[in-house]
Amino acid sequence: MEEWENLFNILGSSCGNGKEDSWKWLGDKSDSFSVASVRGWMHEDLEVVNNYVKWVPSKCSIFMWGAEMNKLPTLDARRRRNIQIDSSTCSLCETADETVEHLLIGCEVANAIWSFVASWCKVPPIFGFSVRDIMKFHTRVNLFPSKKYALQGIIIVASWSIERKDISAKRG
Ligand SMILES: [Zn+2]
């Protein structure tokens, strides 16, 4: 948790002080955020997001790439490869199978982190139906390019930190 706080202290200067400019939702012409507008853009043609953020540590970018390609060694993935495991339940919430979508989207721990990031960055709720939806989230908010870039990086680092929490939970 200390690492997490440090991250936000470091990033605090580049994001979250949106006084001169406002952060608007672009998914809907009315500028208002709605579940319907989110569903609408999620079904658009989603190109592969491969322009990772330079200031993000490469371990975080590599993690994100792995998550998008579904190459993470989640419990579910290990079970599919017939690797002996005691349980494929998510070690963070212990309520669902640990898939990459669960870890980064469905898990209550992920939800708490996304809601923190959204309120801190003053953007609409961060959610999606796939890892790519999360990775593309920054393109759907009306921000100066530098803030979009910051938000993209924050989302990558936050995703990585969710996985770190999962790994330390597994270790007990
Ligand atoms: Zn979970």
Task: Report what the structure shows.
- The chain has one domain.
- It has helices at 2-11, 35-42, 58-68, 75-80, 100-106, 108-121, 131-135, 145-171; strands spanning 24-25, 141-142.
- It has a two-stranded antiparallel sheet.
- With 172 residues, it is mostly helical.
- It is globular.
- It is built from eight helices and two strands.
- The structure holds zinc ion (ZN).
- Zinc ion binds next to loops.
Q: DSSP helix count?
A: 8
- Element-level helix/strand string: HEHHHHHHEH
Number of domains: 1
Percent helix, as a range, is 40-55%
Give start-end ranges of low-pLDDT stretches. 10-28, 37-50
User: Could you say which small molecules are bound to this protein?
Assistant: zinc ion
Summarize this structure as a short list of keywords or feature phrases.
172 residues; mainly alpha; 51% helix; binds zinc ion
Q: Secondary-structure blueprint of this entry?
A:
Blueprint: H1 2-11, E1 24-25, H2 35-42, H3 58-68, H4 75-80, H5 100-106, H6 108-121, H7 131-135, E2 141-142, H8 145-171
Antiparallel strand pairs: 1-2
The chain binds zinc ion.
Residues 90, 92-93, 96, 102, 107 line the site of zinc ion.
Produce a short descriptive summary.
It is built from eight helices and two strands. By secondary structure, the chain is mainly α.
